[in-house]
């Protein structure tokens, strides 16, 4: 403790340092404590970070020890640990804020109750209420004022340092714990030059005796005591009161500490600081705390206000009323109390209440007191506001004084706010406009180095001479990066700067704008800060223009005229420089901060230039010497250039004309950016009222009423506002450019984009033509029959793309189909085309969302978030919204995902254009998210149960009603409700879709807000149980119709640490069907990168700056122990696995948790940062750093191993992974001695973990060890399909263990084994990624495989590709070369087949089981009976049938139109044995029409012969026949239909039965013998050959099985349409479709058979109607100006005719038409020269058309085929090789190969030269690769 002798000591000049408030506190507290317990929370985290860093560097405290810094799992934990440390005699401290402080509360009571001395340092902050605010006010500190701590407020950075010491002194002398608080950000983050308390001074000041006493009071077995007992009413109160003495004395101890401190340091503080600058006596007193004291003080001082004085409250607790009232001069009549907090519903805020009570107590109750609120959430508190308060208090009549009041906002609702006057300049302004304080403002772009540079500048200037006073304060956009930054700097060699508020309008002598986009129209008012004759510096590329006039023009084009006018009127010195190109010139590309800092020193005159240059050079040497002399020199040369070379820094002569420029129009900026996107009035208003001012940094001016008008009360935000920002968050200036010719439409680039800025669009040709820039709207034909007639385009939003490169990295093609290009290239067309495409209809519903590719056609409902470029978190969230967006609710833990996902007013969560539905998102807190989500889930589950009851009751009530008493609407609603009850638990959009269908009936039946009639009396409705009331209640719970997917999301900090207790609790219960997504960045990213328990050993992050020593917590395995929890560990590059995990988690009935690896900017990936996000993810998995697995409890039910290890073989070394990230490298750099050990530990951990996971994945088949499995199943899979097929196979096969990716095994593993390969082919014949290495090794192996090596291959692909199944074929070839035995012909699953690849797969599997000699899996075929009942209607009714069939054909699943036949003509003679026909069909049906595009195909739904149907039914059963009427709820039919109509039009009674059908039928067979026959595949084979067995035949053959009607209708397949290429061209023959059809026949032993459709078509006549729909042809049709070669045989001529007719049409219309050669082949010229007349006529008429025909059966000795003609003629060479023409091949499967040979011959002119041939072959393949060769084969 300081003694009086201290007074005598001379006070040494202190060390001065430029630091911020956090550093100031940390520096003091580090030295005075043994332990610090920390947890990160803004804005106090830097205190913890500093002490942790010093501890890691072994800085010593006063006891010569390192401070022991311990990070806890939460503030609650820190408080508990602190309590424990204190009772153990430690000098311990902690730092916190806001919600964190609230979590301390229980322990604060304990610590105070037990009189344990400590100081808790708080950077005071707002509390989360209607929204989270990380900014400063006193809400947190005021809320703990009842805990029993003394509370001391610091007014400035210097005070924060000093009070940290003084409170430490007072806590020990008083034993009362202290809370020391400074204003969050304003003080904690403000840089100021302060005097430091030295160690020597501290030693003098600390009360050592009391510290010793504290230590002696500690718990110890040497003198045991008990603490924390339970007390009864008899003694508790006395014990509480027994500490009164200490509280009564604490102010004395504090005052004594202040005095001692003054004696040692010379700095004098009072508990209540009184200031008055008038000369008479003040009438008004302003009472306030924190940094506002300095604002009031400086204002009163500067204005020399005669009327008002200030009392700054430093000692808030204990409150000393006597001392306080004494501080108020007698003259004071009115008091204004300023509180920086709001206590809703209270009589007044805390300080106000204390003031009022004190005045009453001390007999001055007659004083007039007004309480006011200011500065909530860091709202800047300025001199202007102080003056508004003073003016308010000086009103003549006290009744006119606003009380309570608010200041700083416009409250036009409750009208509490004070009107503010003019800006007040508290600094002296001299005659020449110069000032005693230099004020500067810098505008920067997040991470451009502006803020860092300014911090450096403050230091340089602050250290320049002793007296120099400096201040720096920094503001940032809420976006995680690439947002704006603003630096407010003040310097003065004359006065001490006490101005804790921003630089104000028209006061800055220097304003710099480092980003030229800010000066553009509708951006920021960057020059408003400039004062007259100030200096404005603009970094702009304009400065590089050589010609001054051109420069001026460019500037005028760039800069908002409003700004130019201000510059002129303010008579500003205007300088420009192109920092980027200058930096590049000096080899320092991208480092503009150094240049801008030099420019500042040169222009601001803040220091003499020579001195500044010398100091800058010294700084350069200090900062860069570790990079080598060359870098130092580069920087110094650059510095010299900036400060002295006139070439670079250019002064702009401001023309007089700028003075009269008219301000730019007032149109809001979002309109300029994206006017077309304005969705509705609500959004428009929100953008106008709220978003626009906020984005232009004028949010302070928005009045309260606007928030209410926009329905934002309670913190509600409207969806989808981020899309209007278009903020170009792209420092790289690069965006991806798409090369459609190498794109395989896999959509992998789309999947990974963190910003949803790249999307695939499925568009029509007309839409492309209508694009703003149609030529630049590149498209290719969309792959997949579901996209019939559509084109595929990838487009990028240039103003949303962050240039992160993830999409390019993810593209699997070689060469890649995306490359980064300058954003300026085609900017206008890219932007406009994007805007246009964005507005086009959503077409995601055309395809499935269950595949990687399909999922990406779903519009993301989370887009353009504020995350850093390349953020690893966002793609997962985006995918969630694509899969479940329209039925999901998200509870999101505080973290990055709440900042990028919910920063007002930018909301990236949006809704579907089509349905208006979208994810509902809410954030509660950091610590309670699991519980918050569970609350949502349980509440909704309960509400839904009620809805189910209500629906059941309602349906029951209707059921009881006689038919005649139900209205048609009721009947329809009833039937839909019944449907809903059936599907309600299905985890899909189905329940929602059923609800959509109900809506019109609710509207019609519900007499309330659903649309009809008067609103009913609510309470009456609730009491009643009749059907109307039930309906009303159902409507009220309508939100529960969808099957909600509840997601609980957050980061690792939440899941592993602070929220773990809650997370564990919700996972522990099977009934909690909630899904948890943890985006694992392995640190607390949002607060700047502090360690969590997810941080791995060896990482250097904040709070573990000496390297984390403990290994990462294994959260996945922890939850696996519950056994009912679905657990997955995923990483973004493995898209198929991510997708599978998300789908499985949602599907799992119970809790799930997905832990997703999320690369973060703070990992410091080198050298490209998150530009390598995808590679980083892959490397992490390949090295075993991040394992991929899924634990699916559903598998346990099937007696399978629930654990599936998705990543197996370690292909990379984990230490190599560590070398890629600075979080690990820093350890090596700073602590090489421990780095080696920790890295080795990581290596062994990884191997240990992988071994363990492998064990988990093993063993559930009959063999003992997986290695004993006789069959190895391997796959190479790009999108996950091949992997799924392989896994299913391995599961089913008794001889195999499980399926592995090919790359996960060694060749030696398959030597001597039986191997089953399932191999997909991706792109243009490429091997999928996870098979590439295996294949490479296979190709380089020369040693043959051992005997017994056998294999079979299943290839998956798409036969419309040239390289169909190439990867599979390559493996087969290579295996054969190495002597392995092929067991089976390769199977091929063809995606372009009507039934998809399943058909090929099943027929292959049929052969696999016998080949392996294992029984096929015993599958019980699943039968879902059709909902059907016999109707009471006696006879069929044609109208009823018609209606029901229309329902069927018009249903979403079919979407057909009934159109009439115009003609049906044979093309060959009657008696010829083949029947080619032209069938012309009208496009106009009865009430719908068909439209088609060139090259499309028409799908026709055949029907059965009604007589045959009738015969069958009569033969089959006596229970029903074709006249029987049933009521049906299936096939889209909702009503009655006769069985005759159903069997004729819907069910494929006469198709060939499949094995699956037989299996299903067999389940109804009772005779085992019959069953055996049915299940024997040879039965079908033989019957098919002999009799051409049909389903009807099979049913009759096994009549005894006779399934009941519901099952029968379910097992008979439905009639599928048959597709025919269209031979007409839509523009040439309007409203008519012409088909060229060959009536197909086939033979069985019993005779000739017709296909169903052909049978029907051959019998149709003019006027008959056909049910048809359009299907896109598989070939991309040519444009008329494209050279074309068509080769077709037989009816394959159809599409060629269409193309040709379109060329003819174009020629007739005078369009340019390119050469067109047609090679047509058929059997006999005389009979089969189809379209002969027409073709020959064209040949004669048009010179661009050449016809080549070949007839193979005319001359049996000389068969001529089309390919022979192609080879012989020059057309192919001239049109396809020498020109970029298109080739179309159409005919049977045997045609393409010979055609390719023919092309090579034509291209090489029949050369024998190998090189020529090779070149021709490459040219030919090139055509295929680039989509110029297209084929349709069958
Ligand atoms: C009780 C409480 N303590 C501390 C904080 C400050 N805080 C907000 S987010 C966050 C870190 C979040 O980290 P993590 O959960 O890993 O998510 P990430 O930011 O990495 O996505 C912290 C410490 C808080 N909001 N509430
Ligand atoms: S560069 Fe990044 S932000 Fe831009 S489209 Fe590609 S992935 Fe998306
Ligand atoms: S091939 Fe490349 S560009 Fe095309 S969709 Fe796939 S990833 Fe995207
Ligand atoms: S998680 Fe990392 S990369 Fe993503 S927004 Fe947060 S800090 Fe940026």
Automatic annotation (TrEMBL):
UniProt-listed Pfam families: EKR, FAD_binding_1, Fer4_10, Flavodoxin_1, NAD_binding_1, POR, POR_N
Cofactor(s) for this UniProt protein: FAD; FMN
Flavodoxin-like domain segment(s): 1271-1409
GO function terms (MF aspect): 4 iron, 4 sulfur cluster binding; FMN binding; iron ion binding; pyruvate dehydrogenase (NADP+) activity
GO terms for biological process, alphabetical: electron transport chain; response to oxidative stress
Gene3D superfamilies: 3.30.70.20, 3.40.50.360, 3.40.50.920, 3.40.50.970, NADPH-cytochrome p450 Reductase, Chain A, domain 3, Nucleotide-binding domain of ferredoxin-NADP reductase (FNR) module, Pyruvate-ferredoxin oxidoreductase, PFOR, domain III, Translation factors
Reaction(s) catalysed by this chain's protein: pyruvate + NADP(+) + CoA = acetyl-CoA + CO2 + NADPH
InterPro entries: 4Fe4S_Fe-S-bd (IPR017896), 4Fe4S_Fe_S_CS (IPR017900), CysJ-like_FAD-binding (IPR003097), FAD-bd_FR_type (IPR017927), Flavdoxin-like (IPR001094), Flavodoxin/NO_synth (IPR008254), Flavoprot_Pyr_Nucl_cyt_Rdtase (IPR001709), Flavoprotein-like_sf (IPR029039)
Domain FAD-binding FR-type span(s) in chain numbering: 1454-1678
4Fe-4S ferredoxin-type domain ranges (all copies): 734-763, 792-823
EC number(s) on file: 1.2.1.51
Keyword annotations of the record: 4Fe-4S, Electron transport, FAD, Flavoprotein, FMN, Iron, Iron-sulfur, Metal-binding, NADP, Oxidoreductase, Pyruvate, Transport
Family to which the UniProt record says this protein belongs: In the N-terminal section; belongs to the pyruvate:ferredoxin/flavodoxin oxidoreductase family.
Protein name, per record: pyruvate dehydrogenase (NADP(+))
């Amino acid at each position: 403790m300081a003694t009086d002798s201290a007074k005598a000591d001379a006070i040494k000049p202190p060390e001065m340092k430029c630091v911020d408030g956090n550093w100031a506190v940390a520096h003091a507290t580090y030295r005075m404590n043994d332990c610090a317990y920390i947890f990160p929370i803004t804005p106090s985290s830097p205190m913890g970070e500093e002490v942790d860093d010093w501890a890691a560097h072994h800085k010593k405290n006063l006891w010569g020890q390192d401070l022991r810094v311990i990070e806890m799992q939460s503030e609650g934990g820190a408080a508990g640990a602190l309590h424990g440390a204190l009772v153990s005699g430690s000098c311990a401290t902690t730092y916190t804020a806001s919600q964190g402080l609230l979590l301390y509360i229980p322990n604060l009571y304990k610590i105070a109750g037990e009189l344990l001395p400590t100081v808790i340092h708080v950077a005071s902050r707002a509390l989360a209420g209607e929204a989270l605010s990380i900014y400063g006010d006193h809400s947190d500190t005021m809320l703990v004022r009842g805990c029993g701590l003394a509370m001391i407020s610091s007014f400035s950075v210097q005070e924060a340092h000093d009070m940290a010491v003084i409170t430490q002194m007072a806590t020990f002398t008083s034993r009362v714990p202290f809370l020391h608080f400074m204003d969050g950000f304003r003080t904690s983050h403000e840089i100021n030059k302060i005097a430091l308390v030295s160690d020597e001074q501290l030693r003098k000041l600390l009360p050592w005796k009391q510290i010793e006493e504290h230590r002696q009071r500690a718990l110890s077995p040497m003198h045991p005591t008990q603490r924390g007992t339970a007390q009864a009413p008899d003694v508790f109160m006395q014990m509480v009161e027994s500490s009164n003495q200490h509280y009564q004395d604490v102010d004395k101890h504090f005052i004594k500490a202040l005095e001692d401190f003054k004696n040692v340091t010379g700095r004098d503080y009072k508990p209540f600081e009184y200031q008055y600058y008038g000369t008479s006596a003040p009438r008004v007193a302003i009472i306030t705390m924190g940094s506002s004291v300095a604002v009031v003080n400086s204002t009163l001082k500067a204005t020399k206000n005669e009327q008002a004085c200030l009392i700054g409250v430093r000692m808030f607790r204990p409150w000393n009323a006597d001392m306080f009232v004494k501080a108020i001069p007698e003259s004071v009549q009115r008091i204004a109390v300023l509180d920086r907090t709001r206590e809703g519903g209270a009589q007044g805020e805390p300080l106000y209440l204390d003031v009022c009570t004190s005045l009453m107590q001390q007999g001055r109750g007659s004083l007039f007191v007004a309480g006011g609120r200011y500065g909530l959430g860091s709202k800047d508190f300025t001199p202007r506001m102080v003056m508004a308060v003073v003016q308010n208090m000086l009103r003549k009549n006290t009744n006119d004084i606003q009380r309570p009041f608010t200041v700083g906002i416009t409250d036009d609702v409750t009208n509490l706010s004070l009107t503010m006057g003019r800006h007040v300049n508290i600094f002296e302004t001299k005659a020449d406009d110069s000032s005693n304080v230099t004020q500067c403002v810098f505008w920067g772009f997040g991470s451009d180095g502006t803020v860092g540079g300014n911090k450096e500048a403050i230091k340089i200037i602050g250290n320049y001479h002793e007296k120099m006073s400096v201040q720096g304060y920094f503001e940032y956009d809420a976006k995680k990066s690439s947002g704006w930054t603003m630096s407010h700097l003040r310097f003065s060699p004359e006065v001490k700067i006490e101005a804790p508020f921003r630089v104000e309008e028209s006061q800055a002598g220097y304003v710099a704008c480092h980003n030229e986009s800010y000066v553009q129209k509708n951006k920021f008012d960057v020059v408003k800060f400039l004062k007259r004759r100030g200096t404005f510096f603009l970094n702009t590329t304009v400065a590089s223009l050589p010609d001054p006039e051109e420069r001026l023009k460019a500037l005028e084009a760039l800069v908002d005229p409003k700004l130019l006018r201000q510059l002129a009127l303010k008579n500003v010195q205007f300088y420009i420089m192109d920092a980027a190109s200058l930096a590049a010139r000096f080899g320092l590309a991208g480092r503009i901060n150094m240049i801008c800092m030099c420019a500042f020193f040169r222009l601001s005159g803040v220091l003499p230039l020579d001195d500044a240059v010398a100091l800058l050079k010294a700084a350069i040497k200090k900062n860069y010497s570790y990079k080598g002399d060359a870098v130092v020199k580069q920087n110094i040369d650059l510095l010299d250039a900036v400060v002295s070379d006139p070439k670079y820094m250019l002064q702009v002569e401001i023309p007089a004309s700028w003075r009269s420029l008219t301000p730019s129009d007032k149109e809001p900026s979002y309109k300029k950016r994206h006017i077309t996107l304005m969705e509705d009035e609500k959004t428009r208003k929100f953008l106008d009222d709220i978003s626009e001012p906020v984005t232009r940094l004028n949010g302070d001016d928005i009045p309260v009423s606007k928030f209410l008008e926009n329905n934002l009360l309670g913190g509600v935000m409207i969806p989808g506002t981020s899309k209007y920002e278009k903020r170009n968050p792209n420092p790289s200036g690069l965006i991806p450019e798409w090369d459609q010719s190498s794109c395989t439409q896999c959509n992998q680039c789309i999947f990974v984009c963190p910003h949803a800025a790249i999307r695939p669009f499925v568009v029509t040709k007309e839409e492309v033509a209508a694009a703003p820039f149609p030529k630049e709207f590149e498209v290719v034909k969309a792959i997949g029959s579901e996209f019939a007639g559509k084109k595929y385009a990838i487009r990028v939003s240039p103003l949303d793309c962050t240039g992160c490169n993830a999409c390019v990295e993810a593209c699997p093609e070689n060469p890649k189909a995306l490359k980064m290009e300058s954003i300026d290239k085609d900017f206008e067309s890219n932007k406009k085309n994007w805007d246009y495409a964005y507005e086009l209809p959503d077409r995601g519903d055309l395809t499935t969302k269950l595949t990687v590719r399909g999922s990406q056609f779903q519009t993301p409902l989370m887009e353009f978030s504020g995350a850093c470029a390349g953020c690893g978190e966002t793609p997962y969230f985006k995918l969630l919204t694509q899969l479940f967006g329209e039925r999901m609710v998200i509870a999101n833990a505080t973290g990055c995902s709440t900042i990028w996902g919910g920063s007002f007013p930018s909301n990236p969560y949006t809704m579907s254009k089509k349905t208006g539905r979208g994810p509902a998102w809410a954030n509660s807190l950091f610590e309670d998210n699991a519980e918050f989500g569970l609350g949502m889930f349980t509440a909704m589950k309960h509400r839904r149960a009620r809805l189910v009851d209500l629906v059941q009751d309602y349906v029951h009530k209707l059921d009881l009603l006689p038919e005649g008493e139900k209205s048609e609407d009721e009947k329809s609603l009833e039937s839909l409700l019944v449907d809903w009850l059936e599907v309600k638990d299905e985890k899909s959009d189905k329940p929602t879709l059923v609800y959509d269908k109900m809506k019109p009936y609710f509207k019609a039946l519900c007499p309330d807000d659903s649309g009809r009639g008067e609103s009913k009396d609510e309470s009456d409705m609730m009491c009643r149980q009749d059907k109307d009331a039930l309906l009303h209640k159902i409507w009220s719970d309508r939100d529960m119709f969808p099957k909600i997917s509840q997601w609980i999301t957050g980061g690792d900090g939440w899941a592993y640490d602070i929220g773990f207790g809650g997370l564990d609790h919700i996972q522990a219960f099977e009934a909690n069907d909630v899904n948890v997504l943890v985006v694992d960045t392995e640190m607390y990213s949002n607060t700047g990168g502090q360690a969590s328990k997810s941080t791995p050993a060896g990482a250097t992050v904040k709070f573990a700056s000496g390297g984390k020593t403990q290994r990462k917590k294994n959260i996945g395995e922890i939850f696996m122990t519950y056994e009912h929890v679905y657990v997955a560990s995923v990483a973004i590059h493995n898209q198929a696995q991510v997708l599978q995990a998300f789908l499985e988690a949602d599907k799992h009935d119970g809790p799930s948790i997905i832990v997703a690896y999320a690369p973060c900017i703070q990992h410091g990936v080198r050298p490209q940062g998150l530009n390598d996000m995808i590679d980083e993810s892959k490397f992490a998995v390949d090295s075993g750093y991040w394992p991929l697995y899924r634990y699916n409890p559903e598998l346990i039910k099937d007696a399978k191993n629930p654990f599936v290890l998705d990543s197996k073989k370690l292909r990379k070394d984990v230490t190599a992974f560590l070398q890629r990230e600075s979080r690990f490298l820093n350890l090596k750099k700073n602590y090489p001695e421990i780095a080696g050990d920790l890295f080795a530990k990581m290596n062994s951990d990884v191997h240990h973990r992988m071994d363990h996971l492998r064990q988990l994945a093993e063993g559930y088949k009959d063999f003992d060890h997986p290695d004993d499995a006789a069959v190895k199943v391997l796959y190479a899979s790009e999108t996950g399909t091949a992997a799924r097929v392989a896994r299913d196979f391995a599961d089913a096969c008794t001889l195999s263990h499980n399926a592995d990716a090919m790359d996960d095994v060694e060749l030696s593993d398959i030597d001597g084994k039986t191997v089953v390969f399932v191999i997909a082919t991706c792109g243009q014949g490429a091997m999928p990624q996870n098979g590439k290495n295996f294949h490479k090794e296979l190709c380089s192996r020369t040693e043959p495989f051992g005997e017994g090596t056998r294999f079979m291959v299943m290839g998956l692909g798409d036969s419309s590709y040239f390289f169909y199944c190439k990867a599979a074929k390559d493996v087969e070839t290579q295996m054969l070369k190495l002597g392995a035995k092929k067991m089976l012909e390769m199977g091929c699953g063809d995606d372009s087949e009507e039934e998809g690849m399943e058909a090929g797969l099943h027929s292959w599997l049929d052969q696999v089981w016998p080949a392996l000699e294992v029984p096929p899996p015993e599958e019980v075929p699943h039968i879902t009976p059709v909902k059907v009942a016999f109707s009471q209607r006696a006879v069929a009714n044609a109208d009823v049938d018609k209606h029901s069939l229309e329902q069927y054909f018009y249903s979403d699943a079919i979407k057909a139109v009934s159109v009439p036949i115009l003609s049906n003509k044979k093309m060959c003679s009657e008696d010829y044995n083949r029947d080619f026909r032209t069938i012309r069909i009208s496009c106009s049906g009865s009430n719908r029409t068909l439209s088609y595009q060139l090259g499309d195909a028409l799908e026709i739904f055949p029907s059965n012969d009604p007589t045959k149907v009738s015969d069958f039914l009569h033969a089959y059963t006596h229970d029903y026949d074709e006249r029987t009427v049933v009521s049906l709820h299936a096939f889209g039919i909702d009503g009655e239909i006769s069985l005759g109509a159903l069997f004729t039009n819907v069910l494929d009674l006469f198709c060939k039965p499949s094995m699956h059908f037989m299996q299903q039928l067999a389940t109804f067979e009772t005779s085992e013998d019959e069953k055996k026959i049915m299940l024997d595949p040879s039965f079908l084979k033989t019957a098919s050959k002999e009799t051409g067995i049909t389903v009807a035949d099979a049913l009759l053959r096994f009549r005894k099985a006779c399934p009941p009607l519901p099952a029968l209708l379910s097992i008979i397949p439905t009639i599928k349409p048959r597709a025919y290429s269209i031979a007409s061209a839509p523009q040439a023959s309007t409203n008519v479709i012409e088909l060229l059809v060959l009536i197909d026949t086939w033979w069985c032993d019993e005779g000739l058979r017709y296909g169903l459709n052909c049978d029907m078509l051959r019998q149709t006549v003019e006027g008959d109607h056909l049910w048809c729909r359009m299907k896109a042809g598989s070939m991309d049709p040519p444009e008329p100006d494209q050279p074309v070669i068509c080769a077709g045989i037989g009816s394959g001529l159809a599409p060629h005719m269409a193309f040709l007719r379109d060329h003819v049409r174009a020629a007739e219309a005078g369009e340019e038409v390119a050469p067109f050669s047609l090679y047509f082949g058929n059997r006999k010229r005389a009979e089969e020269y189809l379209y002969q007349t027409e073709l020959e006529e064209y040949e004669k008429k048009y010179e661009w058309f050449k016809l080549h025909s070949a007839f193979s059966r005319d001359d049996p000795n000389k068969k001529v085929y089309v390919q022979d003609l192609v080879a012989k003629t020059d057309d192919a060479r001239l049109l396809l090789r020498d020109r970029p023409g298109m080739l179309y091949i159409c005919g049977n499967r045997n045609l393409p190969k010979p055609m390719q040979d023919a092309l090579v011959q034509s291209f090489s002119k029949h050369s024998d030269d190998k090189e020529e041939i090779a070149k021709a072959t490459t040219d030919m393949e090139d055509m295929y690769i680039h989509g110029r060769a297209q084929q349709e084969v069958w």
